[in-house]
Known about the structure:
Structural class: mainly alpha
Helix content: over 70%
Number of domains: 2
Oligomer: single chain
Order of helices and strands: HHHHHHHHHHHHHHHHHHH
Number of helices: 19
Strand content: under 5%
Radius of gyration: 23 Å
Shape: globular
Largest sheet: none
Amino acid sequence: MTPGELQPVRRRTAYIAxxxxxxxxxxxxxxxxxxxxxxxxxxxxxxxxLSIHLAAVTLGTLNLQHGLLFFFGTVPNQRALIVRxxxxxxxxxxxxxxxxxxxxxxxxxxxxxxxxxxWIGVAILLELPTACATTTFIALERARxxxxxxxxxxxxxxxxVAVPAGLGLGTGGVVAGLVVAAAVRCAxxxxxxxxxxxxxxxxxxxxxxxxxxxxxxxxxxxxxxxVLNRSIDKWFIAAFRPxxxxxxxxxxxxxxxxxxxxxxxxxxxxxxLVADFRSGRTESARAWWLHQxxxxxxxxxxxxxxxxxxxPQLFALLVGPTGAAGVxxxxxxxxxxxxxxxxxxxxxxxxDRNRSLVGAACVLLAANAVLAGIGAAMWGMxxxxxxxxxxNxxxxxxxxxxxxxxxxxxxxxxxxWRDWTAALGSSAVAAGVAILAGTWVAHTWPxxxxxxxxxxxxxxxxxxxxxxxxxxxxxxxxxxxxxxxxP
Length: 487
């Protein structure tokens, strides 16, 4: 790989990362805003409704939008491909809305939210077709436009949810805001389709729908398992520790930057990976994969360790005393991101190994159901988070084997282990030094580690940790080994 080849990849990665950070960050911002704007019982009800909305919006796509990247270069009418994909998602949205309406009392009767669940279904129906927008821009290699779409729609939804809550309209106002934001997003998507593609709105070669479904069904099953994985621990807490669901909803949030960096890096080289696998250039695909994964390791691992390090102070500042019980759960959830230095599913999709994704997702779901369920029942929030962490480690090892098979190599050669362990080791050492510095500040600065006054300790930890990581990264033992280009 030459610098000329890597420069546009870095640029696309940055744009996609910014857009996805806005999407993921809004989930955390909404939770932090609503926990302060709503009464505790009102927030518990709203948190449950938001978890249903997020799970359904994610599940309802069936991951069909990812097929746009795979099929964009194979059909003569790209607009019709976008429209058909959106209509398929709208169909699933209609089914989900109907199910939620019919089952509203069963789902939310015990916690008093059944009257709002049908409106959550309306928001889902309007929002689902628009999931094609970001992938459409990426397929057209318009990463900047993808970022602007993500940022603008996120701002609209954030305002539509936060303003009613701030005006004292409660859970009903938040739900109404979701519906309004989804309607605006749907109208904007229609404009995007009209302006970014050409050709008739309908009409594709015979067999395209069957090919889309063959490609998409395994992804949909994988997505279904993934949605359950992200939600099942919360539902266990709702069942075994209902009074903790509000705090746990905040604790179980991923840091936006950590979740979007691997996706952005993978999306930036997605077209290259698809082309390499189609042409049988496995070594070239492996070179791109290792380069991106090694690069992400140097970013994601230190940030993950750093967030775990400052979690007590972060919760004290952002959540207040009520969030102290969720600190350990948040730390365990953040630890999960240490292995997410790559978009593993993207490589398997590029290699047309979607069925492998189903197996890995089912392993994670089964392990999570057992471990998080037992953990929640026995130890509450910390137990559920620890069970989820253990389940993710098991699934990671499974998916690495599948990645190695797709690349035609061993697990040892399919992942930049030296870069990853070096980043983890240097970050652990830096965290130890930072803990000592934070402890010293807490003892010498009166009130420095009290909720609402934790800035001195957090700044000391961040400063010492960052400095130590930078120094350690310059040592020959921890320097990254360059990834060689494929011949």
